[in-house]
Amino acid sequence: ALRSLHNIVSRFARIVGLDKTDIPLAVYKGSFGEKFFIHSKVIASTLWTLAKKTYNLTDRDLQRHHKYTSHSLRAGAAVILHAAGINAIQIKFLLRWRSDSFFLYLRNVAHLSEQQNRAIDQLALATQSEVTAARAASQLIPNLV
Questions:
Q1: What is one process in the GO biological process aspect for this record (predicted)?
Q2: What is residue 105's DSSP assignment?
Q3: Which of 49, 87, 106, 142 lies at a C-alpha separation of 20 to 30 Å from 81?
Q4: pLDDT (tens digit, 9 = 90+) per residue, 47-93?
């Protein structure tokens, strides 16, 4: 995250200058040197271009499905952060979610499955040790009476 922030600030300083505090950080330079703000339509257009090249889609295919938007990045980022162990409050803050609706996008990625399996194994071990301790205690009680 720090490397990404550094890259964003460095690009902003190069394109706009650090003294311009009234301009958002999300800018890029066009092919003719003009400055543009990064916004949802730019992100969607970039995703559409990548999807076309990756999946060999036509413009008609993309218009029919409308699956590639800036929202895709937020949902994907929520999954990645959650899999990395970031808690819900941090995800809401980092990705500016107003509600807990990002939970709808969480997927059963391998990392999350491994965490769930470890938790179940730990619970099973704890339960077995509690049963063993209870049996030992019950055997001691008759001897004390």
A1: DNA recombination
A2: G
A3: 49
A4: 888 888 888 888 888 777 666 777 777 888 888 888 888 888 888 88
The closest of 70, 51, 47 to 61, measured between CA atoms, is 51
Residue 144 has pLDDT above 50, yes or no: no
HEC string of 78-117 equals: HHHHHHCCCCHHHHHHHHCCCCCHHHHHCCCCHHHHHHHH
The pLDDT value given to residue 141: 60
| Residue 129 clears pLDDT 80, i.e. is over it | no
- The residue type found at 114 is E
Q: What are phi and psi of 20, to 5 degrees?
A: -90, 85
For residue 81 the two structure tokens come to: 């952060």
What does each C-alpha distance from 128 to 54, 100, 114, 123, 137 come to in angstroms? 51, 36, 21, 9, 14
3-state helix, strand, coil in the chain (%, to 5): 70, 5, 30
- Over residues 94-120, the mean pLDDT reads 80
| End-to-end Cα separation, the chain, in angstroms | 64
> Residue 66: which region, alpha, beta or left (left: phi > 0; alpha: psi -120 to 50)?
left
